[in-house]
Amino acid sequence: MKLPQPIRACVKRGQIATLALLALLAPAPVVAGETRVAVAANFMAAAREIADSFQEKTGHTVNLSSGSSGQLYVQITQGAPFEIFLSADTVRPQLAETDGLAVHGSRFTYAIGKLVLWSAAPDRVDGQGMVLHQGNFTHLAIANPNTAPYGAAAIESLNALGLYEQIAPKLVQGESITQAFQFAASGNAELGFVALSQLTGQTGGSRWIVPENLYTPILQDAVLLKRGGENKIAVDFFAFLKSPQAVAIITRHGYSTAPGT
Question: Are residues 93 and 127 both part of a single domain?
Answer without folding.
Answer: no
